[in-house]
Amino acid sequence: MTVSNPETAAGLPVAELLPESDKLEIEIGPDGFVEITVDRSRVIEVLRALREHPELDCDLLLDICGVDYPDREHRFEVVYHLASLGADHRFRVNVPLTEDDPNIPTAYGIWKAADWFEREAWDLFGIGFEGHPNLRRILTHEAFQGHALRKDYDPEQRWLLTETETMAPEWATENVESNDDFETQILNLGPSHPATHGTIRTVVQLDGEVITRAECEIGYLHRCFEKMSENHGWNEVIPYTDRLNYCSSMINGVGYSLAVEHMLGIEAPPRAQAVRLILSEFSRLMDHAVCLGANLVDLGALTNFWYFFQPREEIYGLLESCAGGRLTVSYTRIGGLAHDVPADFEERVRYLLGYIPKFIDDVDKLITGNRIFRDRTEGIGVLSAEEAVAWGWTGPCLRACGVPYDLRRVRPYLGYENYEFDVPVATTGDCYARYLVRLEEMRQCLRIIEQAIDRLPGGPVITDNHHVALPPKSKVYSEMEALIWHFKLIYDGIKVPAGASYFATEGANGELGYYIVSDGTGHPYRIKVRPPCFAIFQAYPHMLEGHLVSDSIAILSSLNIIAGELDR
Amino acid sequence: MKAVMTVNVDRPKQTFGERIYLGSIIQGLAVTIRHFLRNLFGQKDVATIQYPEEEREYSERTRGRHILTTKDDGSLRCVACYMCETACPADCITIIAEENPEAKVEWEKRPLSFEIDLLRCVFCGYCVDACPKQAIIMSRKHEMSFTTREEAVMGIDELKQKGPIEEEDLGYRPYY
User: Fold this and answer.
1) Residue A79: what pLDDT?
2) How far is A129 from chain B (nearest CA, A)?
3) Predicted local distance difference test score (pLDDT) of residue A22
4) CA distance B68 to B168
5) What are the pLDDT digits (tens) for A108-156?
6) Mean pLDDT score of chain A, rounded to an integer?
7) What single string gives the DSSP state of each residue in A340-400?
8) Hey, do A14-130 and A225-567 end up sharing a CATH topology, with the first three levels equal?
9) pLDDT exceeds cutoff 80 at B45
10) B7 to chain A: nearest residue by CA?
11) For chain A, how many helices (H) and strands (E)?
């Protein structure tokens, strides 16, 4: 929709606040974003205005991604997603680029968060960001040829990359004399180490035991799921999303389904929404349990890991009885859920509500007041609120810095606005604060579940819209028309109206956003996931400077890095 | 930002009692000893099981190894419509169709070969959802081991139901 004088939801006249706005295309997107299309010569000027104007105040860079349109005159498009924490409005800036000269100035000087997102766009699309301090491949191997997400890249070719990976950053090969006559040392933390929680490599420069410089290598678990999505139907993407943050796979599937439902203009039935909410909150609880459990193991407190894994095991039992899978549930479908919950669902949820709190209390008693734990985590990995926002942090890590930003409250979905719960906030921004926030969030999850199970509505769990959901099997076996719809849905897929839309939910780690481009066919044209821990983790090497090696482990696990989501 | 209900979880600086550490040692020991005693005398609280002697009970929705169901005469129910192959997110199903010479009606298809590569399969159950004939269902069998990649590719012989359907360890299948 093009409007002559676009305003944000709060009624800000955007055009009046931007420089030379008569030369910009400004519209309001279907997802409520203010969409600005700008030529690359003016992109920095516009982005800077969005960041620095006190009323626009877009302090959070959500995402930078590329989209490839081979048929257009300007083949590539760079898409920036921006949000303002204070003013609660969101912007999308589109910059078209030609194939011959796909270069654009870097936004790193405006938001630090641009660092890895720009590297990713360079890696997968070959879009050059002029002035970026370290524009190297990030998700694929250094020796990889081509750019995997370009439409003309054939996904069927198989690469065997046998070259040994040196990938030592330039600074690592120089010998630096430090003041006290000791040579600095280069050390690899990871990639395969129990404390790296997946496969993540950190090259650190040591002066004695103090880290003076660090750089991360990620991408060991990269499977280019975004490319796979482009060759499969809309519903078939759901099992892929399970593998993003595999500690809370339900949340990913719910987020994706909501994003597509949003584009289709449909809503899942109330029962499906309530079940999605309950299982999402259980997943969040499990995710925090894994994060805290692993964090404490890394610091030498093994017992807590068991105390947390016991309720986790029970929750997996519940998920398995609903969905048939424990870790990768694949339970949601576009339009609802795959099938209704089992008859004893309510009983089991109520049992868990009584069962889980004592384990949280046990850990609380063992750890929270423990001097060893406090001494090892207080003042370690401190990030101020401003810095955290500049790095694009969201979720529990941001809330531990004192910013009460929770999408369940700020932009409610699934009816979160109807539930009573508090958003835990700490102010110190260190590892201890992140522990406290997660621990309290687990209790709040239980509070939400308790209210949700009390008012669990009846009715169907999937929409009866036969353009979206498969008809019931009893009808497929007996009625001609249902069989035809069944065939059409499997072969042609769901037809999502053409357009682009960004929808975000509060994942266990923070804002989990899906930017989806549809061309109206049965396949997604482009799916870009905004993984919360990608933004969080890019701050990690910078946080390490000045800390001991042992602290690096405490910091890493307190950030909750999930390689499936980080590397996609 | 919208005003949201928040709860501050900051902790005050460590008190003298916390700094001398004795209190938290005793509190910690109380927790661990309680767990120890409960596990010692009340084995039912122990979450771990003695696998493989003991096995966990899974629900009837468990997505395990596939079964190709048969009709009463022992022939496959599958009509080689390629629905499961199309719906598969992992592209692990390969079907080759042929005409069924024993069919009572003209032009009926059946699979000449039906292969599932279990190393590619992600056990999502989409093939079961896609099948219009209830010809492919899943069992609860999830313990599989292979020594070569070729061995993991299952054909009709391995996947076909072995006896009466009630005797199979039934898992995920259409609910109606």
Assistant:
1) 92
2) 32
3) 67
4) 11
5) 888 888 889 999 999 888 888 888 888 888 888 877 888 888 888 888 8
6) 86
7) PPPTTHHHHHHHHHHHSHHHHHHHIIIIIT-HHHHHHHTTSS---HHHHHHTT--HHHHHT
8) no
9) no
10) A424
11) 22, 16
- The verdict on a CB contact (< 8 Å) between B28 and A366 is yes
B91-135 pLDDT per residue, tens: 899 999 888 887 777 788 888 889 999 999 999 989 998 998 888
Question: Are B1 and A405 in contact, with CB atoms under 8 Å apart?
Answer: yes
* Domain A14-130: assigned CATH number: 3.30.460.80
- Say yes or no for a CB contact (<8 Å) between B176 and A472: yes
Q: Pick B66-167's CATH classification: 3.30.70.3270, 3.90.1150.10, 3.40.50.150, 3.30.460.10.
A: 3.30.70.3270
- For A66, phi then psi, to 5°, come to -105, 155
| Interface test with chain A among B5, B10, B121, by most A beta carbons within 10 Å | B10
Q: Please tell me the number of Cα atoms within 13 Å of B132 on its side-chain side.
A: 25
Residue B166: what pLDDT? 75
Check whether domain A225-567 has CATH 1.10.645.10, yes or no: yes
Q: How far apart are CA A154 and CA A328, in angstroms?
A: 28
Burial class (CB in 10 A: 0-12, 13-18, 19+), A96: middle
Of the ranges A34-38, A168-172, A197-201, which is most confident? A34-38
**Does an H or E element contain A294, and which?**
helix A270-298
Best probe of the B interface among A490, A506, A527, by most B CBs < 10 A, is A490
Angle subtended by helix axes A345-355 and A431-454, to nearest 10: 140
In Å, how far is A356's CA from the nearest CA of chain B? 13
pTM of the model: 0.89
For chain A, domain boundaries: 14-130, 170-217, 225-567
Question: Which residues does chain A have within 8 Å of residue B21's beta carbon, measured at their own beta carbons?
Answer: 370-372
Quote the percentage of chain A above a pLDDT of 70. Answer: 94
For residue A151, what pLDDT is reported?
87
Q: Which of left, alpha, beta for A333 (phi over 0: left; psi -120 to 50: alpha)?
A: beta
Q: Where are the alpha helices (DSSP H) in A137-192?
A: 170-173
Q: What pLDDT is recorded for position A318?
A: 92
Contacts of A477 in chain B (CB under 8 A): 132, 134, 176
Whole-number pLDDT of residue A3 = 46
Inter-residue contact B153 to B117 (CB < 8 Å): yes
Contacts of A341 (CB under 8 A, 6+ apart): A275, A322, A461
Provide the 3-class DSSP secondary structure of residue A259: helix
